[in-house]
């Protein structure tokens, strides 16, 4: 009887470990702050017209200086689940306006 209980508990523990692994990589695993900021900078470059290059360079400079710090602060204040949802939304955005709506 004890061996049956032990086998069942080992199987359940293994299933729980697999479940946590799948949950982490499926839901919580998110792009890094650096990747999110780089995508935002890429969207700025794709969005601007020829007459807006000065403003775009100023925006890119501010993003490079503050984006990663702000992203790390967002992770600390709101948690990894909220960050994962936000980061996936931003990296999936095709325009800067879509990224800002996240």
Question: Any overview of this molecule?
Answer:
With 102 residues, this protein is mainly alpha-helical. It has two domains: 1-30; 31-101, no CATH class. The protein has five helices and no strands. The chain has helices spanning 2-28, 33-47, 53-78, 80-92, 96-101. Helix 3 (53-78) runs antiparallel to helix 4 (80-92). The radius of gyration is 21 Å and the shape is rod-shaped. The model has no long low-confidence stretch (mean pLDDT 88). The chain crosses the membrane at residues 7-27. Keywords: Membrane, Transmembrane, Transmembrane helix.
**Helix share, percent:** over 70%
Work out the radius of gyration: 21 Å
For the record, give the distance between the C-alpha atoms at the N and C termini, rounded to a whole number: 54 Å
What are the low-pLDDT stretches, counting only 5+ consecutive residues below 50? Answer: none
Number of DSSP strands? 0
Assembly type: single chain
Number of domains: 2
Approximate strand percentage: under 5%
Alpha-beta classification: mainly alpha
- Mind summarizing the main beta sheet? none
Outline, from the CA principal axes? rod-shaped
Which series of helices and strands comes N to C?
HHHHH
Number of helices: 5
Mean pLDDT: 88
């Amino acid at each position: 009887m004890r061996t049956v209980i032990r086998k069942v508990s080992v199987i359940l523990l293994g299933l729980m470990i697999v479940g946590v692994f799948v949950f982490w990589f499926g839901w919580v695993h998110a792009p890094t702050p650096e990747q999110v900021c780089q995508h935002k900078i890429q969207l700025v470059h794709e969005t601007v017209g020829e007459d807006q290059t000065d403003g775009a360079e100023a925006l890119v400079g501010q993003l490079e200086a503050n984006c990663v710090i702000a992203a790390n602060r967002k992770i600390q204040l709101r948690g990894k689940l909220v960050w994962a949802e936000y980061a996936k939304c931003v990296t999936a955005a095709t325009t800067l306006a879509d990224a800002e709506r996240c």
